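In the current project phase, the collection of sequences with tokenised folds has grown. A representative record is quoted in full directly below:
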Amino acid sequence: MSDTSRRSSTAGAAFPITAWTQVMQVQRGDAEARQALEVFCQNYWPAIYTYLRALGCQREEALDETQEFLTHFISGGGIQCVAPERGRLRSYLRQSLRNHLATARRDAARQKRGGGQMQISLDDLETFDVPSEPEAADQWFDKRWAWSVIRTAIERMESRYVARGRKDLFAELKAGLISPDLLKPYAEIAKLVGMTESQVKLEVHRARRRLADELRAEVAVTLPPGGDVEEELRYLLSVMSHE
């Protein structure tokens, strides 16, 4: 991972490098910023694919348009039209995607790009398939976006535990961090990972605090400078809590 990517994923940084910042740097021709933005898009493509499925795209069309949209956003002319004053990247991409699909369907005979598309894991596609529900497409997009925020934060946490040699501990804590009701009793976890019950209790407290920090850092990346992190985080958590 490039230095730019590492800096953009550092939780608790006073001035996190936002995706908007990376967009502006890419507009000026910064190659490292482009790489970092590609990583961001790879983390958030499920929201785009889900949105297209909810809008009525068949699986193959949704995959093609997800790749086309992201390629155009990163490497094509799309990125030149982006400006942070347009607000949340989540909202901007959702509206841009709706416009993209309308244009694509008006010009159904257009040639597909021959290369340079985003690499999407085909194994994950079924996970993100949803019914055709155009009236609920915005909600599906936001829910998948929130899921990507949480997944990215959890993955960063896991990497820290792995670096400490405590992958086994994180495996026991992970489900309970997302859904507290799924956390095993402290005594059971302690026995499984070779710790005392009081040590496990402290680890749970620290892990929850770290997850909150990671979530704030990840949300900050998606907002323009000065954006309200707490408001956005509350909204995304509320989206995840409603089926």
Summary: The mean pLDDT is 82. Residues 132 and 194 are 48 Å apart (CA to CA).
